[in-house]
Amino acid sequence: LSLATDLPKEVYLHLATYVPKIYCRGPNPAPQREDMLAQHVLLGPMEWYLCGEDPAFGFPKLEQANKPSHLCGRVFKVGEPTYSCRDCAVDPTCVLCMECFLGSIHREHRYRMTTSGGGGFCDCGDTEAWKEGPYCQKHELNTAETDPLVHLSEDMIARAYNIFAIMFQYAVDILTWEKENELPPGLETVNTSRQTKPLKVQVMHSSIVAHQSFGLKLLTWLGNVIGYSDGLRRILCQVGLQEGPDGENSSLVDKLMLSDSKLWKGARSVYHQLFMSSLLMDLKYKKLFAIRFARNYERLQSDYVKDDHDREFSIADLSVQIFTVPSLARMLIIEENLMTTIIKTFMDHLRHRDIQGRFQFERYTALQAFKFRRVQSLILDLKYVLISKPADWTNDLRQKFLEGFDAFLELLKCMQGMDPITRQVGQHIEMEPEWEAAFTLQMKLTHVISMMQDWCALDEKVLIEAYKKCLTVLMQCHSGFTDGEQPIVLSICGHSVETIRYCVSQEKVSIHLPVSRLLAGLHVLLSKSEVAYKFPELLPLSELSPPLLIEHPLRCLVLCAQVHAGMWRRNGFSLVNQIYYYHNVKCRREMFDKDIIMLQTGVSMMDPNHFLMIMLSRFELYQIFSTPDYGKRFNTENTNKDVVQQNNTLIEEMLYLIIMIVGERFSPGVGQVNATDEIKREIIHQLSIRPMAHSELVKALPEDENKETGMESVIEAVACFKKPGLTGRGLYELKPECTKDFNLYFYHFSRAEQSKAEEAQRKLKRQNREDTALPPPVLPPLSPLFASLINILQSDVMLCIMGTILQWAVEHNSYAWSESMLQRVLHLVGMALQEEKQHLENLNEENVITFTFTQKISRPGEAPSNSPSILAMLETLQNAPHLEVHKDMIRWILKTFNAIKKLRESSSTSPVPETEGNIIEEGSRDKDKAERKRKAEIARLRREKIMAQMSEMQRHFIDENKELFQQTLEELATSTSRVLDNSPTVSDTKLTALGPKQTRVTELRQVVTCILCQEEQEVKVDSRAMVLAAFVQRSTVLSKNRNKVIQDPEKYDPLFMHPELSCGTHTGSCGHIMHAHCWQRYFDAVQAKEQRRQQRLRVHTSYDVENGEFLCPLCECLSNTVIPLLPPPRGLFNRLDFSDQPNLAQWMRTISQQIKALYILRDEETASKSEDLILSLVPNEKNGNLPCILDIDMFHLLVSLVLSFPAIYCQDFSGVSLGTGDLHIFHLVTMAHIVQILLTSSTEENGMDQENPNGEEEVAVLTLYKFLCQHTGSALKEMSSGWHLCRSIKAGIMPFLRCSALFFHYLIGVPAPSEIQVTGASQFEHLCSYLSLPNNLICLFQENSKIMNTLVESWCSNNEVKRYLEGKRQAISYARESNKLIDLPDDYSCLINQASNFSCPKSGGDKSRAPTLCLVCGTMLCSQSYCCQTELEGEDVGACTAHTYACGSGVGIFLRVRECQVLFLAGKTKGCFYAPPYLDDYGETDQGLRRGNPLHLCKERFKKIQKLWQQHSITEEIGHAQEANQTLVGIDWQHL
Ligand SMILES: [Zn+2]
Ligand SMILES: [Zn+2]
Ligand SMILES: [Zn+2]
Ligand SMILES: [Zn+2]
Ligand SMILES: [Zn+2]
Ligand SMILES: [Zn+2]
Ligand SMILES: [Zn+2]
């Protein structure tokens, strides 16, 4: 490009010519060719122009001159780990990339880890995002923000400006182009050919597509170019936000945003990314962009609501990046009135209202419901705007916030009273009404409502204004409610009040009262901030009408009570659900809790007698308590029991409500407490139910907008942490000193929780040998604004209610009262006494005690009823036989009463003379008490005696059972057999299994019991066959070469096992013994039954019947074969006399001759393979086809040889020749193994101390080694001392010796000496002695030097050995180390990061959805995805199952990284999930990674998984898991 005068025109011409040629999307797209051409023809020239030189030099220069800002801004990939600091992040949306996190101070803080869903960027360097440590080490070094343009030359700035302006304009033009048959001006191609119209349209269309493809390419290119320099970035921002000639909304950025919903998905994400890396990374333009975004907010949201793509593909989603920046949010509130905009936009989308103007979600169409779901994201925006609270208020901010608050009140007004319900009588409702939408709205708004209050609390002026506004709106709401409510007068005990006639059970009632509740919240704030005392004249307190305030919350609470009393059964489940959510931890803070506060507010402002009468009236219980002797009516036979039951429940509920009104004072502002006290109390009550894990507690506590419960700061004060063992999780236990704060009627308990807590606390008291009364705890004092509510306890109506109920209890009329009614009255009395005691104890001079509950309950009732005093009735009830359970509580009440009396006497200024009567009264009471105590003691002793008897009986029963148990289980289980030993045991001199010194073993009688027929059976060769249930499976646990796959198992020759042990078999048994015929009958029955069942029901079982699998009839262990139970096979032959037996040389000669003879007798086809076994060690003409000594596992060879030997040499039944054979075979194989070890040992001579370099053994080894050197053509390394060789032989041969000892022990039956069963220094010598080997193993060679020289020579001269020594092939060296699972990192996020860098191996760089790590070999797999399915035995299987066959011969152990879950697989149909070995600090796993606490490797748990693998228990573990959880059977494991 030359510096033409009209650059834009030239560029457009160039693009018009070449873009359609390069991006010609034909039938064979070639993206790589397109990219290459675009770079050369289109982008290259622009880079040259921009740099003014070769961009290969220009860009690095730019980069070097760049002074990058502090911001990291890394845009996250899907699945990439992100970190947020719970201590320092301003809100949970502030996150760091892994690199920044690891270099930040937050590593040491309480952080949370999540995996990114894609989109969003790293906030490192953003000082507004972090309260502390905003920079990581890397970004801290960067310079502070100056004008980035100073680092660029004038020329460069001008050129960049030119080219960016043209290219950005071009890209925006073409991407937002809407005409199909026309190109934007300047891009029309000169069309020479005359074509018909339709064809032309098509050409035109393909040109547009080509330009659009390039337009996207261009945006990506711009993003890359500005990455070189912050100056270029700023220029691009400037270009993008520059207003065009058309004024408002004419900048390129505006144009793109406003056509967002018209663009396709791919185009959107490309330009969103560009916005993120340009506008949001430049502090100056971020602000300007935020203003553009806010101005267009309404339009963007409306577009989004109409759009059908997910939010992450909408430009609206950028709100989180803008609104969460506190300074931007504040600026937008003030300058753009953002709060109001968001709320108004939201309201505009919810137009469906009822006649009172409230939201109506009933009969929502599908489209409306869809819109409603999308519109909810606006609430999230509101939350972002409010999430950081202002420290300083300006008048502008006050004004705009209150304007926003007005809008918010309008929103709440539309919710006040929505979804009203009426009790259904007669018929059940026909259709469950829609209720979820309203609750969704409430739930989403919960945090916003709380945050609005938080904002108000920060500024007194704002608080007062907000309070007034809220009150006004509440009054407006109420004015619409008065229909059909006539005034009536209520009176009890000489008090009367006017109220309205309204029955919850007959008229409309709504659960949604957000305006009332907001007012309650603000009222508490007034109380807390003491504004009410400082500026009472500013508050509209006189305008408050308490009966009006309490009316609707009270109705709502009465509704809950009536539902509980079963009065609303016909209204179906929707109501039950609503009541559930009303109390639920997610909603209660702004629903139930606030209703209680509103009632507390009401009581504290009105005559408590009036309050109680209104309450009685709303509970529809007024008649009962205003009519004397009401209880007596129930005596009549024709009383409707349901109605009585109903009323009893309502009375209980009402008493509960009064308990809550008086006792719930842990909201700061209601009582004199702080937020810490509140959360402590919640935790105390949760842990009163039972000890809980951290995550359970978190779930039970309300989270704030930052997802914090505040628990961590207080938990240590109230609970002790108990670490988990190998299973389970860590638990918090309540500290004993905290149980005194337990309140049985804690308002957040569900009914089930309440009864569990009661039970647990009583049990605790019994354990501590205390009485079981659960008296109300001592409460903190109320705030002054609420102080007078306590008088409700001593009001006349309250005393009347208490008295009436106690009277019923005294009369013991079985209909009129219930025990829980009485229990609640006792609790209320207790509360009043605690209160009075507190008052007296904190008494100071100026205080006058106005709380005189004790005096009032001592007074008997007045005429005409003349009822006894409450105190008198309590004393009566104390001895009532039907109230045994409440006795401790009544006793506690009377004790407290007396204590208060004493307090009063001591505190009263004029000492009360002790009157005679008083003393007598006290005396008689003491006597009474003593008598009661004596009786209680007798009762206790009797109870203890009975308990002792019972436990004695229990022990007896267990003892009996134990025997029974032993017969059926234990004895049959592990020990399985009783050895009847009727002969003197083997002398404990040396035990030897082989050779001339073989220990003589007396034949042992072994008697076992069949688990199926329970008959005893002696194990003998000629008695009925016994078998053990067993499971045989292929195994690669010992494999030293997992890549070796048996290609064609049918043709595989298993005769020789390679020392790599790449695939073997494992057989295990649960040890349960059956008669062979009993087992056969059982097995046939299982087969028949399961096959029928599977055909009929198409169900899967945890075991595969078709493959012969069955479960052990006793322990249900997975089995697929049986093993015959035999006496030791070679133990049958007794006396051995080796004196006339051949030595090794002679024996081998004989054997060789016999084999030759056999070859002649048999033809090759039918020849037994067993001869080959021995021939592999003996020189012969067949050697060429047999494996060389390096490629044979010697223990396998030993076993095969010993077991097959009788087949070759079967003439002699005396056992002598067999014994000789065993010994010679063993010695021969041992020597072969020694040679094997010497050939392959990689021993380096080093300077280690040599204990005895010239000992006999050392010299002998060195001689043998030299002999080997001779015969391997000196290819073997030169060794000067035998000491190292001795050491490597001993170390290398130990596993072989141990296996051999086990083998011969079971073969011959000679007991193994205890010394060889424990690892120790002398184990080697004891093994040698048991196996009839000289301690100096080299002696074996010397004793048989003649034949051995020949043999060793033939082994060494093998071609393969030569190749190995020349380094042309590998060989296994000894001792083989046992395999372990792979090493896992301590920090789980390393694995997440590893997985996020892993891409599917089959789909060219795409990220894998379920990256899964093989714990055996460490391979990462792309699991649970079609891309990586392969065919295995004619079936499509997922990557894990396929890998399982290659790596674990059918058994696999994986870690699903995104899920943090261990996966066990066996075969194609079996699998289960297993707890991961990663725990958080609270001793819990996080399956699914939902909580995001930092996770660390628990080594013990990982060892346990490793052990399961090493012991071949994976299949069995799966079986047990599937038996326990049938849903696991249905999962398509093969697709993982
Ligand atoms: Zn970063
Ligand atoms: Zn950083
Ligand atoms: Zn931190
Ligand atoms: Zn049997
Ligand atoms: Zn069993
Ligand atoms: Zn593997
Ligand atoms: Zn894949």
TrEMBL record:
Catalytic activity entry: S-ubiquitinyl-[E2 ubiquitin-conjugating enzyme]-L-cysteine + [acceptor protein]-L-lysine = [E2 ubiquitin-conjugating enzyme]-L-cysteine + N(6)-ubiquitinyl-[acceptor protein]-L-lysine
InterPro entries: E3_ELL-like, E3_ligase_UBR-like_C, UBR-box_UBR2, UBR1-like, UBR1-like_WH, WH_DNA-bd_sf, Znf_UBR
Single GO molecular function: ubiquitin protein ligase activity
Domain UBR-type: 70-141
GO cellular component, one term: ubiquitin ligase complex
GO biological process, one term: protein ubiquitination
Pathway(s) it belongs to: Protein modification; protein ubiquitination
Low complexity composition bias: residue spans: 906-916
Annotated region (Disordered), positions in chain: 905-933
Physiological role: Ubiquitin ligase protein which is a component of the N-end rule pathway. Recognizes and binds to proteins bearing specific N-terminal residues that are destabilizing according to the N-end rule, leading to their ubiquitination and subsequent degradation.
The protein, known as: E3 ubiquitin-protein ligase
Biological source species: Chelydra serpentina (Snapping turtle)
